[in-house]
Leishmanolysin family protein
Amino acid sequence: MKSFVIITLALYLSLSLALVHECDHKGDEEIDVYTPEDIHLLSEGTFTPAPIRFTFDDNEIQNLSDQNLKNLLLKSIKTAQLFYEDLIIVKKPHQSDIVITDKQCNYHDFSHYPQQSNSDFHVYIQIYQLSSNTIASAQACQLNEGLDFRPELAVINLNAQYIKSLEDNYYNFQMISKIVIHELFHAIANSPGLYSRYNNIQGYSNNALKFPNILKWVRDHYGCEDLSEFPLESNGGQGSKGSHWPRDFLNNDINTASFLLGNMVWSGINNALILDSGWYDIKDYENKNDPINWGLKRGCDFLITGKCNSQFPEFCTNQDQTDTFIYSGIGTCSSNKKDLDVFATCPYIFLYSNMECQNPSNNNNKYNAQLFQDFNVVFGSTSSAFQSNMQPKNTQDLSKETVLCYPNKCNEEKTKINISFDRYTLTCEQDGQVLYPPKESNFKGSLTCPIIKDFCQKQVQCEDFCSSNGYCIDGKCHCIEGVTGDKCECSENKDLNQPSCKRVQIQNCNIYDEKGNCIKCFSSYKLKDNQCFVLNVFKSKLTFSLLLIVIMLSLIF
Ligand SMILES: [Zn+2]
Ligand SMILES: [Zn+2]
């Protein structure tokens, strides 16, 4: 019986590739090649730089019968649009309509759509249904011939079948909007067809970039002054290599070639590329990015392809299981399984989907339910992985510390971490400090604090992922129109359906779901009908430990 449990769990934990998004940018080279003679077409007029104006033709989304899917897609696009409007200034905005001359763009026929007014960039959204891991793709088409040859038309493809299969929650909303941001980035600046048309700058050859702002950023980031160029991704298929940052060098940047579990970030290199195009300026260049620690100040050695020195904490060896670099969960070293990540030459910790701390769906996962109920492990936007074996006093499950997820928050100075554990707050004030549950609690075991400064620098996620009502950058929410609040949780017309605006405090409730229902009471209380009741008899001893089984996985691999 017990071996049966181990096998099913092992199968389950065998890595879900479902959330991996690979890019598919076939036909990127459809943009016509301009000869030097075309230069005289460049307009000499005067322009007033202004925030980029996107227009979207979302007819195919409007026609979807599934209302949830429709709302999810429309809001993701709105959020991505806001992201770029807040970020990009167009140097030469359109003063007249975009006249659509490229009638065939990415299999979409624009013959019945001659022009678009009040726009710097028009995007047609194409919906398709495909049973694969490709979530989206993008292609820029027509360039702005009369102005500065920047792209002004694109088609974005969204795989409705795949997106529909995702649970409808804040976490997945954030992922979809980040994917739309990724695709739009290909259309406005990030593709081989565009690099060679950047204004007046030669900086693209042999699958590497040497544009001035890119060089400045990478030299500073890696601490490698001698760097003369930065390579693009060289692994993967046609749609992936040559138009993304290399996985080995910028692991979790949003513009690498696939979406990983954990927090994908918009690092400063993306703003550098936008500037290098010459078509745009960036509003608030220094602040509009997420910190990225991958390769930070590791020196030139870090950038030697294939060196993969496991002395760098970014990389792992086959035995490693826990993500001690970004503190986002339990995983396996990518070298343990073939083709886990085709873009990685250097092995890194690849998270198990049900062991990723930030995904709230993992609380309901049937294999995690015991962790959630008995061990006070909580998966959610503010949770991170800690070395711990805190457990109920009447169990013998965890003799040694393993990795468990708890909600936490660093102080402003990044010198302390407050960790929520049941009704208690445990505070890390020193690196490696060992914390214990309070004596009066029903818990025993310990938690070992991480290196606090390092840990706190990596916590860039927004609480509740901005409630699916905005985007998160550098730990702050920016809300779409009509929504306010630190977490974009309140609608401006005081719509009482917004959870945190009306949240009813349920006595002795520890964790609420997105709708404001109690999903977990404090220990020694029992949840029934959205209320917490005193538990009279404390539960009998647990019969087996899921955690020990998780740890045993290394043997199975
Ligand atoms: Zn893509
Ligand atoms: Zn891409």
Summary: Residues 3 and 162 are 34 Å apart (CA to CA). The radius of gyration is 25 Å.
